[in-house]
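Hi Prof. W.,

I finally got the Small ribosomal subunit biogenesis GTPase RsgA prediction working! I wasn't sure whether to trim anything, so I left the full sequence exactly as given:
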Amino acid sequence: MAENRIEENRDGTIIRLQGGFYDVMTTQGEVRSRARGNFRKRGISPVVGDEVVLHIESETGYILEVKERQNFLVRPPVANIDQALLVVSAAEPDFSAHLLDRFLVLIEAKEIQPIIILTKMDLLQGTAEAEVRTAIAGYRQIGYQVIETSSETLEGVEEVRPLLREKTSVLAGQSGVGKSSLLNALDPTLDLETSHISKSLGRGRHTTRHVTLIPLADGLIADTPGFSNLDFPHEMEIEELRWCFPEFVARQDTCKYRGCLHLNEPGCAVKKSVEAEEIMSSRYTNYGMFVEEIKNRARRY
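And this is what came out:
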């Protein structure tokens, strides 16, 4: 008797890339799949988060189509994200407003909702605690949601859970800030590998090696490899950068000149707000540094 062959097409979401295979989640379970050979010729590279059409042959899947993306992050490589949980540590490694602002710019540029998750709050004390709490108040005043957490004491962990419901989220942050520890605190059965901070380097080891979409709290969350450096994309221009600072956007209509870059223009409402301490000076300083970075990149290319 001839063996019954099952052939059908299914919709699904790529949740993992591993060893040249794509693990695709469908309503009928996970299917290990390969991509069509002509994807490379067409310049298509499927990533985690992509919505795809599969052709199933006896439990083996072949990706026929990658559907149009809602959005796409290059680093970490993940598509169709509803929100980004930007994980920054209060200590070990020290809180970095510069790195946080860099993350925020990249997320704002993609029009993805950012949520700031501050980890290791239990390690704060003294002057460092006062400085971090002042910074937190500043970001909240801008309108960003900030959640203070500790994976050791479980402070704030339950505040994260309802944010994940029916959302596809990306968890992004520097190496060693506690992304995997936060996920383990939300669901201990995950048992994700974590690492301690190197005292000599001041950063952690990359314990997450691949982008993976994890079902969690009635949603999907991408645990991503950590990194200590984050470059702006080549296509980002200075004119776009000013739109990635919500507190600048809120004041731009009162600047003297339309299209004000908030640098050296007279009658700039943003600069006046910085002088009046209505805008965080650290944010404006970082904006200026990012402008110079984009200018220098343009000169190189």
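The radius of gyration is 22 Å. Does that look reasonable to you?

Thanks,
D.
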